[in-house]
């Protein structure tokens, strides 16, 4: 019998591109703006994302559909991070 937790899944940027239809550049821009977060990097420096990225991407898309600009979304994300850091 196998015990313990299975290893967590970390998603490569190519997998995000394939499953979301977003471009690599868009995902990179979202990272730079602080809209999504990389969890780790491979030995060769490739970004790896946790399961949380799906919720982050859905929130960005929801806010964009509501008429928010990426700048406004980035400010909201920064405020949310600041609140969480204060908890």
Structural write-up:
The protein is mainly alpha-helical and 87 residues long. It has one domain (11-86): Multidrug-efflux Transporter Regulator, Chain: A, Domain 2 (Orthogonal Bundle), CATH 1.10.1660. 56% of the residues lie in helices and 8% in strands. Strand 2 and strand 3 form a beta hairpin. The longest helix has 17 residues, at 70-86. The termini are far apart. The mean pLDDT is 91.
Q: State the CATH architecture.
A: Orthogonal Bundle
Q: pLDDT under 50 segments (min length 5)? A: none
The main sheet comes to: 3 strands, antiparallel
Count of DSSP-assigned helices: 4
How many structural domains can be distinguished in the coordinates?
Answer: 1
% residues in beta strands: 5-15%
- CATH topology (fold) name: Multidrug-efflux Transporter Regulator, Chain: A, Domain 2
**Structural class of the secondary elements?**
mainly alpha
Q: Overall mean pLDDT score?
A: 91
C-alpha end-to-end distance: 40 Å
Strand order of the biggest β-sheet: 1-3-2
Helix-strand sequence: EHHEEHH
Under CATH at level 1, the class stands as: Mainly Alpha
Helix content: 55-70%
Radius of gyration: 15 Å
């Amino acid at each position: 019998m196998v015990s313990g937790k299975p290893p967590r899944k970390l998603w490569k940027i190519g997998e995000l591109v394939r499953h979301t239809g977003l471009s690599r550049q868009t995902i990179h821009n979202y990272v730079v703006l602080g809209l999504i977060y990389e969890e780790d990097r491979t030995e060769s420096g490739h970004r790896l994302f946790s399961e949380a990225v799906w919720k982050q991407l859905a929130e960005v898309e929801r806010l964009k559909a509501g008429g928010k600009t990426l700048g406004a979304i980035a400010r909201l994300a920064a405020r949310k991070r600041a609140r969480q850091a204060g908890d």
